[in-house]
Structures are given as C-alpha cells and as structure tokens.
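Support reply, case 0932

Customer input (verbatim):
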Amino acid sequence: MTIPSSSPARSTEDGLNAVQAWRRDAALTLGADRAVAREFGQTGLLVMDDKPVSLQPLSEQPTGAWIASARAGRPAGVGEAQWCDALLLASSQSLIVTHAAFGLAEDGDAVLIVRTPAGLDHPALLGAEVAGLLALRRAVVEGVSARPAQEVVDQLRASIEAGDESPAAHEPADPLAQQFEAPEEVLVMVHGAMLHLGRSAAQALATARSGGLEIDGRPIGLACDVDGENLIVVADLGRGVLDTAPRRRAAVLANTELMAFLGMAVVLERGQARLMTRWHLTGQSAESFAGWLRDIARLANAIVQRHTADANH
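Our regenerated output:
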C-alpha cells in the first residue's frame, strides 16, 4: 500500500526540512536515540518488532494532517477467519475513540492506520499519536492471543444474530426530544447541512434532534465524540455484507485503502455491517459537511450493490 504524502516544506537545520524535523522531534519524545530519530525524520519509516511503522504528512506544513500506519502479524494459533473478525470488531471500537481502523495486507498482516487532524502544534502531540498507534496495535494482538478462538467466533455470531439492540431500535422516539448530544454550534452545522441537502426546515430540525438521517435510501447516524471536536458517522450496510468469513476477509482487505485514502472503514458494530468514519469539525462548514455526507451515502450504496451483485452470481 502506498500512503499518500505531500511535498516537503523548506529546509531547516541538520539538512532536514520542516516536516522532517517535526517528525524527528516526535521520535525523540518517544525515547528514540538521536540517530534513529534523525533517520525516522528523513524517511518516516521505522521497524519495530520486525514490522514497519510509517508516519507521513498529508500537507506541506508540519502542523497539517498526518497519516500513520503500523503492521501486526497474525499471532500464532490464531486462524485467519478469527483474525479478520477481531479486526472488524476492533475497528468499530477504535473509530469511536480516534480516527483509526484496521485493514489487512495480502500477506495476512493487520495494517493499523491512524489519521491525525490538522492543528497539532507541537511535535510531542504527534509523538503521542504514534504512541497511541503502537499501543492500539499491541492491545489488539494481545487481546486476540489471550482469547480462545471459539470465544471470538461465539461473540461474532451472537452479535450478528442479535442485530442492533439499542433502545432506539425498539422504542418509538419522541420527535421533540433532544437525543443527539452535541455542542450548540455542531447542532447548528448539522441543521444547516440538512438544508443544503434539500431537506425542509422541519426535517432539518428533526435530524439535529435525533442525529439520524437518510440519503439515497441509506440510513446514516451521527454522534459527537466526548470532546465535541469530531462527529462519528455511521452508514448502515445491512447484515448480508459481512455474513460469511470470505466477505469479512474481503471487507478488512478493502479497509486498508478505504482508511488510507478516504478515512473510512467497514466495521461490525452492534451486530450490523456499517461504514464508519469521523468528521473533524474545526474549520468546516455546513455545506462541506453536506457534500461529505452525500459521498458517504454513495460509497455505502456502492458497497451494498457490489455485495448484491456478487451474491447473485
């Protein structure tokens, strides 16, 4: 997989440009020695536990967005199907907390990808993102290794059979209740986005209250993270997309490029196959959010249509 990157900013001390110097200093905050940190600053590549770790900029400025990735080998005694299932479940949890999800390389390694927002104003913050990447990789590998294979299979089967058991799925919602918890400015942006999507004022208000909407027949849910800085966005794909082991493996394979280039991943969340992502709110407009929601709906529908076509052959 080729991670997208941008041209470097102008050169600074030690022959490193500004982006490289920032990356070097991030490595130093993680305890790397000077030589290793400088090499990491130059290339953005590091080998840890015999697996590559990459950190690349998505803009020409060090305070812009970054993308980091790390590989993890499938633990001994863990089957491929169990490994893929664990990665799908882990992605649904990691995307709630940060912009991170797991893909799969053709050789069977997990590929963990983390996307950082623009605005990290100190290399230590970038170093903290890399530390979080490595901690998440370690937690998933250790978690899968510590659990019997049948336990993971049983959890997955129970999750699929149970479906979405959230109260909202069974109890009629009060249309006047504020179920979508978010700062006022976020609610205003969501309301404005609905108007840009052609919704009536009443429909826009309903979405701002519930956090639920539908675009081109695809149900989409919104939730605000604990800091109020990101929206977690989930599009339902239906159960069939992940109902067999080969389909789940194909989804995790696709997640590698989906996360690298679009910042999205197919996950298993509350028994449903879902397309999941995060929207960083800083500097965004209602109009741009509306366009992004259209793109999510198009991609979700394309995934479902491809599944339907494959199932019919």
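We compared this against your earlier run and they match. Two observations from our side: The chain has two domains: 13-161, 166-311. Residues 118 and 220 are 26 Å apart (CA to CA). Please reopen the case if you see a mismatch on your end.
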